[in-house]
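Run log, item B.
One chain of 193 residues. Sequence copied directly from the ordering sheet:
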Amino acid sequence: MDLLIRRTFMRVGMAGTLAAVGMARKPQAQTILTPKEPVVRLMGMEAMKPTEPPAPPAPQDFTDADGKPVTLADFKGKGVILNLWATWCVPCVAEMPALDAMSKRLAAEGIVVVPISSDRGGAAVVRKFYASHDIAHLGIWLDPRGVAARGWGARGLPTTLIIDREGREKARLEGGAEWASDEAITAIRALIA
C-alpha cells in the first residue's frame, strides 16, 4: 500500500510540474478582477434635495486657475452647477466625465458647470487630472483650504449646489451623480429656469 501511495504522489507531482511548465510557455488570457479605479455607483437625481426656501449661498471667495479671486457674483445671470470636489475623492473622480458632458450640453443655454477643487496642489494637479481623464469642457477653480466649501455647508465631497439665474441655491446633491443623463439635464433646466 505504501508503494502505491508514493507512486500516486509522484505522478501527481510530475503532472503538476509539467502543467506549470506548460503554463509558463503559453500565454493565457487573464481576468483582472481589480479595475484601474474603484467602481463607484453614481446616484440619480432622486438624491437631489431641494433648498427650501431657495436662497443665495453665503458669499465666499475661491480662485481661478491663475490665482485670481472669484465669487458667485462673477456668474450673475447664469445658471450654475457648483461642484465641490478633489482629485483624491473616488466618487468625485467617477462623476467628472458626466459633469464634463453636462457642461458641453448646457453651455449654449447659459448654464455653467463650476467645479471647485480642494486639492492643495493647485491648478497643476487639476490640469494633470483633466488631461489624464479627457476632461475638455470644464474650467479650473480652486478652494485649496476648503474655506468656501465650509462656508457653503458642504459636509463632504463631492457636493453639488444648483444655483438659478437669480443667484439662489435651488437644490443640492451630496455624493457622486450621473449628471449627463437625460433625467439630470431635465432636472437642471427646470431648477435653473
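Observations after the first pass:
- Confidence is low (pLDDT under 50) at residues 2-35.
- The chain has five helices and eight strands.
Flagged for discussion on Thursday.
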